[in-house]
Queue: 2 jobs
Job 1
Amino acid sequence: MSLQHSNSTVISTAGGTFLSVLPNLHSEDVLKTIILATLGAVVSFSISLILKFFIRKHKK
């Protein structure tokens, strides 16, 4: 037995979920999320560069 999903069902479900979450979002939460996501990306990128540097140095 396989379940088939039509595009309209998926879009309706995603839209309904988004609209039900929207009233519960506060500007402070959105700002905090943006700041934490940016910080996480910067830290991840920095660690990648540091590890790449050490790996290249170790191979020589």
Job 2
Amino acid sequence: MTGSGEGWLSDGLDVPGADSGLWVSGVDYIAGWCEAREAADHLNRALLGAGFELSAVRAVASTNEDGRGVVRLAGWPGAVERLARLLEARADTDGGAA
């Protein structure tokens, strides 16, 4: 999910590790990142559909040191609290089923 213009990844949020990290020769980071990017895009579309602004909360694709895909949630505390309440309400109505 691309954002609304250049710099969408860091538009107002400090995302540690977004621009830095340790790269190990021979590790396929691209495959893991592509998998994480697909999952992050899916979550970002769901966040947009639920009325969230990606400048307030969003999923960010990354990899760990082994090249495995990782999706991190980055957001302002108020937006993350709103998301938590939304998920809690869903769990309450479904009996915790996902």
